[in-house]
Amino acid sequence: MSRNPNKMNLVNTFKAGQRYMKLCPTDQQLMHSFPELKIINHIKTIIKYLPPIIVGLIVWQYYMPAQLAVTILTILFALSLPLQGIFWLGRRSQSPLPLNLVDCYNRIKLQLIENKVLDVNANPNEKLTFESFMQLISLSKIHLGNYFGQDDDASNQ
Hints:
Layout: H1 5-23, H2 28-31, H3 35-63, H4 68-93, H5 99-114, H6 130-144, H7 152-156
Helix pairs in contact: 1-4, 3-4, 5-6
Keywords: Cell inner membrane, Cell membrane, Membrane, Transmembrane, Transmembrane helix
Pfam family, one: DUF412
GO cellular component, one term: plasma membrane
């Protein structure tokens, strides 16, 4: 019995989106540069408020003369919002890093190698994706004290 490759790709995309959501830092200073951080914030907000919204829709259906089909469609749409966000994050995490961020990636990686956080020969054939960039940014925050490995004195000048 063969598996449907599109179904597996969909599942893998959702898993990548969940992994990317856990990996991304949520600091305000990065939200202006990376839209996925705003999407993650929206997904968490939707998940937080979705149960009361659905209960409200069910109560609305019970007490108001609303059509059942409209209520069901509204509930399905509300349930699909976090799934759409996670799917987008999964696609974004596997997207190639744009050229304007490759230089920043290489600079951060070099600083992490100089501080002996990363090995020089760690992954020579590493695919430059947003996920690998966020992993590097997280390592930079932990080991260098800030995201882009810049000195605070140099950024104030």
